[in-house]
Amino acid sequence: MEAQGPSGVLLIDKAPDMTSHDVVAIARRALNTRKIGHCGTLDPMATGLLMLVIGRATKIQDLLMSEDKEYVGTLTLGAVTGTQDRQGEVLESKPVPAFSDAEIRQTFDAFTGEFEQLPPMVSAIKKDGVPLYKLARKGQTVERALRPVRVAGYQVTRIELPEVDFIVNCSKGFYVRTYAHDIGANLGCGAHLSALRRTRSGKFTLERAVSVADLKTAPREDLLKAMVTLAEISLMRGA
After folding, report:
1. Is residue 109 flagged as an active site residue?
2. Confidence grade of residue 2 (pLDDT, cut at 50, 70, 90)
């Protein structure tokens, strides 16, 4: 295996305030290999599971990205932002009514099963080959098509208005920022996503994840040992 360079999936627990691309750059240096991609971009604000595909594993990148994911998040009611998360400029502020827990949960219920989302302008979807976030930076807004998504289940774990903590299990291509935004719109006071952590993708969890600090400092041999091999992935997927 080493003759061709390493192959497998390295699970990383992404730190806040860095891009998914930053993590790939660190991994390339740490593993001394160029052939590394990542599955499912995490915004700089978000933390948690980022799957790096290395060597021959890059061939199964699309397969791994197509699986359901789990996120733990916090939404803050009463403020709508330009990016739908706390890193954007506040566009609109409204007082937050004293919602009951039942009213909050009822709204989450409305976004369960299959429905459609309008992708945010700050996203990696391309319009005529240009990622939307690049157009958004220039102050442009373009028409986006609604995308079908699915929420297999959710839990509301804390309600301390204006904050609501939740766990959501969702399909590929799901925008948790848009989920928070839409729940706020449904409640009539607006909302944005104020914290996000990805805890699962398919059968992969944070259990075997390497921290970014360890990715920077651990010996290469240790990182290679931490990788999930292609044979293991085959077994996990029942292939």
Report:
1. no
2. very low
pLDDT per residue as tens digits for the range 152-168: 999 999 999 999 999 99
Place of tokens 């976004």: 111
Catalytic entry in 13, 43, 85, 182: 43
CATH classification at residue 34:
3.30.2350.10
Domain carrying residue 94: 69-120+146-200
Residue 41 lies in a domain: yes
Cα separation, 209 vs 225, whole angstroms: 12
Query: Dihedral of CA 42/48/54/60: which sign?
Result: negative
Same domain, 154 and 94: yes
Burial label, 42 (beta-carbon count in 10 A; 0-12, 13-18, 19+) = buried
Contact residues for 24 (Cβ-Cβ < 8 A; gap 6+) = 36, 37, 38, 52
pLDDT (tens digit per residue) in 215-229? 999 999 999 999 999
Structure tokens at 83: 């990016």
146 band by pLDDT with thresholds 50, 70 and 90: very high
Total number of domains in the chain:
2
Q: Are 46 and 22 found together in one domain?
A: yes
Q: Residue 184: enclosing H or E segment and its boundaries?
A: helix 176-187
| 135 lies in some domain | no
User: Is 20:50 a contact under the CB 8 Å cutoff?
Assistant: yes
- The model's pLDDT over 182-205, given as tens digits with 9 standing for 90+, comes to 999 999 999 999 999 999 999 999
Beta bridge partners of 169: 70, 153
